[in-house]
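Lab notes, practical 5.
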Amino acid sequence: MDDYLEFVECVDSYGKKDGKITLNPEIYSESEDSYFDKLENKKINSEQLSKQMDEAVNPLVLRNYEPNIKSEAELDKYVEFRKKKIQEAMEKAGSNDVVQNDDRSETLLSNLFLMSTKDRRLRCSFVTLDLRGFTKMGQSMPSADLTRLATVLSKEMSVLTYEFNGFVLKYMGDGHVAYFTAPNILAAVDSSLYYSHALRRIIIEVINPIFDQNGLPKLKFGVGVEAGIVNITRVGSWQTKTHHDLIGPPINITFKTQTLSKENEILVAEKAFRYASPSWKNKLKEVKLPSTWTYTPPSEEKKTPEEIELEFKKKNDPVEKFKTLVGLAEKNSEKVLKVYSLE
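Output from the prediction step:
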């Protein structure tokens, strides 16, 4: 995959935006004839830079909105506030509130999809949450209780996502997928990590005690976090239903990571860890995983004709065949994916 450069809007000495864009200085440093990506530890070709600068469209520069919750003290207040709201929701048999059907994710992705005919890609951070034992709950609980449980949980996930300026990509019966964007991947990852931390607190400190009081089972869950580049696509048909979706390795890795999580654990994959700020890195501890737990890095999915030819010759070389037979051959197409637990 080609490098996906991140741009930010230029501002004058008064902080006013002038419509021009430049490379994000938090990620790139300038040298005499090129730029250096400080996160990926590699140089950026000046010709490639010029081409992307020419193709970049100003509306595609994502605005940076600070999350509404910026400290643990503010999160404490939010947790107390949601206790009252959730208790009220549990006491209602149903809701007759009329609300506007506003899908923030669909609006964003639709606009980005229409603005570009070539580079329909987005760099962001993903969070997946999965409820453990949801199928068993459905078999043992009255349908009305299961509906209340799913309704309360999905609403709290959605409200909290908004507080951190994120988007809900999709709901599932036993979880959801949220994503976070920003002018740079650093801010997006920090928002996703803080959101994951806040979501765990809401479930453990608010939802579970209230569910217990109302005779509902306490929720057990797992969370996965990863960041990277994904493609924006339109799925479905106009005859029935269509919407915009995000597809790519980061989402797959988020799900793969989440399945490894223990009860009520947040697991963070290595790219999100790399982009995390020092304050979050200090709260992340590497998890020991089996060496068989591997994946194919996206950069190795596409090979040039020369690489394919070299690989073919190497595979048919008698010495390499013997190494494969005795288990000494190098495995270039797979690597162990590092994962970190958020304390």
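Observations recorded by the TA: The chain has a mean pLDDT of 80. The longest helix spans residues 185-213.
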